[in-house]
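agent> call fold_tool(seq_1)
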Amino acid sequence: MTDPEIDARAFRNVLGQFCTGITVITTFDDAEAPVGFACQSFAALSLDPPLILFCPTKTSRSWAAIEQSGRFCVNVLAEEQRELCARFGSREPDKFAGVPWHTSPLTLPVLDDALATIECTVDSVVDGGDHYIVIGRVQALTESTTTGRPLLFYRGQYTAIEPDKTTPAPWRADLDHFLTTTTLDTWL
């Protein structure tokens, strides 16, 4: 059976119906300069062991540096960081110029105002068409002490959580239970 012809624009439009958060994946290159790229293809994968995944394009220069170093940091962006996302999504040669960041205790570049950071080692890499599926083993986690909200991407543009939706929904306890209880029929 041959693969059906799928129109690239239709593919993007349909997948754009799924709202995603936006991250910046960072590392140091072999010259010890910080590098990174904006990435919305990011997800939790496993609680035991703690694994995440992200999907860089095969031609990404930042991915080449991550592959070489074997380590990376996932920076979860806040809704105020649209310009930062655009900068790290561009071909700007020095994306860190003028951006507040620091080196973590695990010696990875961390964006100062990220909502959360997840520092990882590369566990494995799987071919994914014109991208790779990179599985990262979590080494350290931090969460912002501010009450910021995530930068989201939906239907080809930035979006945010409704202003009055900053408190947990009444079903939050059920969601917490679902996310922290593993059974044979749960995905996480």
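agent> call fold_tool(seq_2)
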Amino acid sequence: MAKSAEVRQLAALGEALLSGGGSDVRSGEAPVKAASLVSGGKAVGHRDFPAAKRILPKVYSGMEVDFYCGCRYQGKAVDWQSCGYQPRKSESRASRIEWEHVVPAWVLGHQRQCWQQGGRKACGDGDPLFRMAEGDLNNLVPAVGEVNGDRANFAYGAWEIHPRPIYGQCRSLVDFKLKRFQPREEVRGAAARITLYMHQRYGLQMSRQDKQLMCAWARQYPVDEWERQRNKRIIQWQGEGNFLVSQPDDLPLVCG
């Protein structure tokens, strides 16, 4: 996305939604319009989640490393030895790569009417904006299936400087009691920029505390080459990347 009045308008919209009164801001039905979705291997545009999953292997071709643990993978098979991974509970799910929503599908949909009527399936069947958000390539990363399952819809957090690993040498953590997930340090900047983009793009609710943490991570961990390459490929397939990656100087428009 070019640095333009459109970028500033999007940022202003998100800021208004994220900085209203109270500790949490409820946006309800987001004041954004759903794009027409495309499918197929050559079309450019937003896709629903099933169509996005068919494109994602091309987005990550030559970049086959899972997001949360740094494990290499081939196809859907995870190479545990490449990252020192040890399953916590489920060897079968830990053996495969899944496509993780950085901003969970629950966050994308739980305030929408369709979710109240039938959860994620109802939103996927009948809500065009949810389908667009669920399939947004900017929000999807490869993750070890077990970690993806454990993360669930937990918000990000940071509570241990020296993580006590629960997946072998993987440095991402889950606190099941507090319902928080601490991603490894190497991807915190990327996770923050994805989170901030998604909340602005789709008018989602975010607590002040979570916004402050995401802004802090986005400042502390600058855009890296992996993000730039990924963003270029997403623009190639979706026509819209993450402006916080292509124009990192626009972060103050979001975070002040």
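agent> summarizing second result for user.
Residues 117 and 144 are 31 Å apart (CA to CA). Residues 1-30 have pLDDT under 50 and may be disordered.
agent> awaiting next instruction.
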